Amino acid sequence: MGAEIHHLTTNQRNPGVAFHPEWVEGIRVNRSAVERRIATLNARRTVKKQWQAAWLLKAITLIDLTTLSGDDTPGRVQRLCAKARQPVRSDLLAALGMETAGLTTGAVCVYHEMVPIAVKALAGSGIPVAAVSTGFPAGLSPLKTRLAEIRASVAAGAKEIDIVISRRYVLCGNWKALYDEIAAYREACGEAHLKTILATGQLGSMTKVAKASMICMMAGADFIKTSTGMEAVNATQPVSLIMLRMIREYYEKTGFMIGFKPAGGISVAKTALQYLVLVKEELGDEWLQPELLRFGASSLLGDIERQLEHFVTGRYSAANRHPMG
Fold this sequence. Notes:
globular, about 45% helix, 8 strands
C-alpha cells in the first residue's frame, strides 16, 4: 500500500489512447481498505517547524487561485491576479529567505468572461489562466455550445481548460459516450491543457469514480479533478486516493504522467499538507510540481500565509490581514 513510483519514463503530454473497455470492466474498489489507508495516513504523517514552512511554500505554487462567483467584477479579478503574482507579503518572504524566489501561485481560474481581464493582469508573469468551461458546473448545455465555449476561452488566452463531464454517462455506465465526449473536448482545447472535473460527489460509488478517472485519461485528459466546488460533497481524501491509484495505473500502462487536482473544501493549510503527503506516498516526489498537482481553492492561500506568519513571528494574526483581493 502506498508504494512510490520510481521508474519515471516520460513527462510528455498525454495524447490519449484508443478506447479500451477492458481497462475499466475489471476495476473494483475495496471501500473498507481505502478508508483504512486514509485513517492511518493522517495519524502517521506530520511535518513541523521549518519543514512545515517549506511544504506550505510548495503548496502555494500548486494553487489554482479561483474566483467563480456570479458577482465577479473586473476589479476583483485584477486584485486576485495581483495576489497570484505576490501570494505572500514581502516582509514574510524576506524573513523566510524567499524574497528572490519568484514565488507565485500555479494559475488563476475564472469564468470565460473574465479570461481577457486575467490574461492582461498576468501578462509577463508566466502564470497561466485557467477557464472553467462546458456549461460549468452542471455541464448540461448543448455539446456544440460546450465545444464553442472551450474554443472561445482558448482564443481569449486561457492556457488551461477545466471542463465538467456528463455525469449521466457515468451513472448509466455509458463509457464509450464519456470517452467520445472527453476526446472532443481534448481536440477543442488544442495546445491548452485539459482538466476534467468528475464531480465525484455525484457519481454514486467509488468504483464509478475509478472508472470515470480511467476513461478521462484514456481520452486525453491532462489532469483529473475531483469537483467543481459546488456539489454537496467535494474533494475527500478517500476519493482522492482512488483517483491517484488510477493515475498510477494509467502511468504503468502507458508511461504518461497525469495531473491531479483536488478542489472544493480545501481551505486550511493542514488539509493541503495532508494532500501533499498523500500524493508523495502514492505517486512520488515527481508529482509535487505545478505541472502535475494543483489545488482548486480561494481561501486556502490566506490560511497558508497566516501559518507562515506564525512560523516567523510566533503569533497568529487575524484572517483579515491576509486578503485575497
